[in-house]
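#dry-run=false #mode=assembly
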Amino acid sequence: MNHSFLQDALIYLGAAILFVPIAKRLGMGSVLGYLLAGIAIGPFFLGLVGGEGKDLMHFAEFGVVLMLFLIGLELEPAHFWEMRRLILGSGAAQMGFTTLLFFALFIQIGFDWRAALAVGFALSMSSTAIVLQTLREKGLAQTQSGKSAFAVLLFQDISVIPILAVLPLLAIATAKATEGEPITFIGGLPGWAQTLALLCAVGVVILSGRFVIVPFLRFIARIHLRELLTASALFIVMAAAYLMELVGLSPALGTFLAGVVLANSEYRHELESDIEPFKGILLGLFFISVGASINFALILDRPLMIIALLGGVIAIKSAVLLLTGTLTRLKFDQNLLFTFSLAQVGEFAFVLFSFMHQLHIVSAQWTDTLMGVTAISMTATPLLLLINERLILPRFGTPERVEKAADAIDLQHPVILAGFGPFGSTVGRFLRANGIEATILDNDSDRVDMLRKMGFKVFYGDATRVDILKAAGADQAKILIAAIGSPEINKELVDKAQQLFPHLEIMVRAENRFDAYEFMDMGLKDIYRETLDTSVRLGIDVLFKLGFRRYSATRAGQNFIKYDEAAMRQLVTHRHDESIYIFNVKEQIRLEEQLLTNDREADPTLNDHAWDSDRFVKPSTDGPAK
Amino acid sequence: MMDHSSQILILFAHPRFEMSRINRALLNMVRQLPGVTLHDLYERYPDFNIDIEREKQLLVAHRVIVWQHPFYMYGAPALLKQWIDLVLEYGWAHGRDGDFLKDKIVFNALTSGGTREVYSPGGYNRFTVREFLVPFEQTATLCKMVYLPPFAVQGTHLLTEAQLAFHASLYRTLLARLSQGDFRIDTMRRFPFLNDWLLHEPGAQTS
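#status=ok
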């Protein structure tokens, strides 16, 4: 096939646009949508893309590279230190046991011990890309299982560095090690030298991050050209990736390291907002190419073997994960979620397998087979999670519905409260204190169990699912409070509720001003910014401590809130369309600047001359001083 | 939002409206009257943060102002006092150039638990209602307004449903006559309460 670049781009983007919304609509999540799109356009079905699927995968792996850079950026050392026990404990347990079991399995199959060990390492990896994306989409990233999953993934991602360093040593004994063409410039070196070179490269990334990149960014930032900063961000990521590739290390690890090094710099948020859109689209492409690269011919050739391997791999990984979850004292449903979300083999396995192939640790056919198993297991993850969510948890975990006591009671719940985090719980407690029992929706099973014990009427599950909303009584309720922590999910909920339950009055929590703008665009009136009242209250207390009378300070605060909400309604029309990206920090700063300028022009406390007797300049005869 | 044909502005101040039978009865009767604007102060300003500009606009747009409130500790609830303190500004309502309210009619429509008899020199409360209302009267005078005797429903705890309905319809007649111009100020001022005037001079229309 002789496709032009434009044609290919059209096919990939078109497939994504077609499949992802369908998958989302069916509640399967975007990752599965991308994978299905890949399978559909791949050589086996429509054949729209052919042999170049592998090439594209190399290109799209850059999405994984960018993702790891962002993960690195989010990993402030302090945060990392906080999680150290979880990361080391559950991470080491998972990697250790899984590798050991696969090692034993592949020895049984007849592998050399070195090959078995290498394959064991590769198969113990899980997919950071899929898991994080899926958990974030479902709003589960902050639950116990979400945190444990993140810890395990982090441990795996970091341990790829030593594994890649060790692999050449495993190849030494294999006589054919240097037979192939050296791909990297150190490829011809003996194993120990390769290992040394890797460690040097890691050192270079860490040192240059600290002493070169941050001053460089400072210089760029002073020029005040937005695109230049974006270019620099991409340059840093690519440079780190290139350096790692040069020494035969995974580019993803290089950028991960670069991210960690830059996590403490003042440019962290800037970099994050610049890279985020690229990451999203490239990660999508990566998932498509994984789908496209599944070799269905091979599967049809040896279906039983592939199925057996796939089943075995998932079974072994799940068993170890379940054990790890139990050891870290996850509750049963959280543990199931943790297990199923991490049961696939991850994208780093592709890197490791191709590296092993280059080193001739594993044969070409086995490499193909194992890569196939990896790709299928990744495709299976969203399905496994779906099965867990729809079939297993309702039966064994925290039930989605509560036992219905009597229909009469249902009618007395005119309020549905979605999201019982710190924000929603305060709303719920206040309502309860005034005799209003809201029906609560939440997707953290630990919290749901606790609330049910306290006698709350709680529905467990994804509040954006129509059946759960129906079960919670959205048909009869009067008010829906959308108080979910993740702004994206909250928006999705509002959107669904507006379409399906138009009679509901929707009152919504907005994380900040920019969130609120979007809700205003959606036609909502009752929007509550979670920080507005609190910060004004703090400001009032500052005035008090500086000697203002409490009542005057409080009045000033009340007027400020009024003024601020009016200013918001005015500014909503002035913002750019591109501010749809929440991460667009630049746009946020621009709006903030506009707001501050307005403040200067219209002093909200200027017209308050209540009880002001200064205006009786000349003592008047016609009235008492006020 | 504002009706330009409006005549009567009821400034209603009751912190516990949901508990008050008599005020519910009174307001239900007059709510739908043409030319009457009901302004529920506690509903509008639960934070006591009165929007002065808006209040001035309302005052300008009406000819008759009613301070409707329960009689608390011989006066009006705090928010109505707050309203008087803030809205009736020097230079606008009184003082130099302060004649925006000139010749507008104003009176109190109040409800009290005690009967008319306990508000008398020989009674438990020692003073008449009219005496307790002196600050309102002088405020109105200061603002060059025409102050009328109060309309009062007293002994509210003892009222039967029929009596509630009677007082409400009397109130309705009062507002209807005020908006139709069916009254003479000097006659009204001869009575201690507008209730007495209404009973004594049924007027052109009956309701």
